[in-house]
Amino acid sequence: METKKYTPEEEDRMINKAFQEMLSGYLQSNHRKKVEIIERAFKFAREAHKGVRRRSGEPYILHPIAVARIVSHEIGLGSTSICAALLHDVVEDTDYTVEDIESQFGKKIAQIVDGLTKISGGIFGDRASAQAENFRKLLLTMNNDIRVILIKMADRLHNMRTLGSMLPSKQYKIAGETLYIYAPLAHRLGLFAIKTELEDLSFKYEHPEIYKEINEKIAATAEHRNSVYEKFAAPVRERLDAMGLKYDMTARVKSAYSIWNKMESKHIPFEEVYDLYAARIVFQCDNEADEKKLCWNIYSEITDLYRLHPDRTRDWLSTPKANGYRALHLTVMGPDGNWIEVQIRSEKMNEMAERGFAAHWKYKIGEGEEESELASWLKTIQDILENPEPNALDFLDTIKLNLFSSEIVIFTPKGELLTLPVGATVLDVAFSLHSEIGTHCIAGKVNHKLVPLSQKLQSGDQVEVLTSNSQQPQPEWINFLATAKGKTRLRAALRRDRRAVIEHGEKEFADFLQQNGLEPDNEAITKVLSMEHLQHRDDLFFMIGCNEIALSDSMISRLKGKPQASQGGLFSKILRNPFAAKPKAPVEEETITTIDDNIDKKKTYVLTTENGVSNYMIAPCCHPIPGDDVVGYIDDDRHVVVHKLTCPNAMRLKSSFGGRLLSTKWDNRTEKFLASIHIEGIDRMGILQELIYIISTNMAINIRGLNIAANEGVFSCELTVLVEDTNVVTALCKQVKKVKGVNSAARMN
Asked: What is the DSSP-derived secondary structure letter of residue 591?
């Protein structure tokens, strides 16, 4: 992207206009008007960043002003946060220190700027260990003053809004880590508007064509959607007017990312996503005590008009979500025969929903219910920090688990409420009560009925945990846990028992090196730690003792500095992509070329195959084919491993190893790739023969695998075929759907 050039006069006008727009929004808020300190912070930051430009060519100071505007207008914070936002890059990028900030603007602003400086450069570095450490700093700082993470969220939102000026490989990295951590963190903090925009912007840069296509379809169906909504809303408005309410009723369209997510998870086209919008009613209520009663009165009026879906009423009035969200949701049958969700909130609830915990400063809740929920969540984070995972990526996954989960509410025998993620078990309840209860849990009683510790819970269950002093924690329990706290506490308990395994692994490692003529000295151990992306030798010896790391010839070759042998073993092949699943058929080493150390990452890497030799490897976890949006990852042996952008492992790679990513595209090829299709339908005589005839004879597609099963008149089939690209898969699914009895045919993720 070409950078723009501006005259000094144009720059001055641009900067002053941006600052005045930010300031005027602040002056319209309910905060005390501390204009003088904001103007001083602006002048200080402007002088500090003088002459510096962003990649787009704009003066750098426009970025801090934009962040301050988001902090003020979109999150709703006051002068302290606005000053910290204006100054957030000063300590990192200039010669000024935190002490300079403190002397000019006071201790509180300096502390927030210091917190932001410690977590600068995004949560993630190029190495997993660095990113986990940065994330720990972020959470510790957040525990001291949550405004640090709110300003960081504003910083990330502005970076995403201006991501178009970055290189494609940087776009993948930043969009990937945004989806992986920042959007879930915005969700947990109740910043729903920001969370939705972060998801949509990430989606826009990762899948530009699909993003454009979905938005075009949303625009094309707007007229029909609006007419259906007006038919639905008119009688509701009459009822609300008769109640004498002051209210605002609007239709909120699903975001492009949410629509795409539903299309992917349900394997349906855009036309079959029926809940494209939800109706939202936001009413005025001066007396907080009447909010709940008014919500249920509105609910009653709507259910008098329309048929209620019995299983889709959500009461977050009595038990708010862990991020403080309060509302009443119901789903009713609309005039066109489709289900419509209606969200009912007071103005205060709506502000809490849009601005999350930031709204607490405005309403000065003190030790209110929502704030105690925040304290409870931060206490859980503290618990994880006190028992950190030795493996950096496990640590990030554990945190992510605690960020983004739908919730259920369960009761203890004494009637106390516990909020847990969907999928939580009796064992999760045990660990949430206390580590000792978790490690000695043998079973539970759910609604007075005896159940195993792995029993999944439903919202409203009453749960009693049964323990025994003779019970010891088992490694397989990790599969029974859905909470971050449970996983952290279990691993901490297991680590206490792992000393014997470490000693065994250390002896095994030393014997192995000596048998191959090497000494188990610090140099050898450091090399292997680097190869395995580990920080501590205890972790290495433990993984060797548990047979998680194989002691292979390839390890010796790399320690001696020799080229790796082609028969280096399956484990060494998996290591090249830290997250790859076990490949069904390992690629022969000779058919893959390595890339040059001096490769230009700014250019798009073309995936080619000549004379049977490819310049890339297909990731065995997602099996991308031409036509898929893909990203390249440079592994330890300088091979390019190609992942689908939607692959969960690619998400983690983008978050963790941004410096190793390549923007890639397929060349025009004639070779074929494996693709898997899932087919479902009504079983009948001869349907399999018809399917095989269409695929093999009509379309001349080579079938490489077929697994079909029928049960009580319904069949499902998993089909593996050789195809040139995604167009062939789309055409195949279209033809298969024409077969009588077939209900669905879609490519498997």
From this structure: G
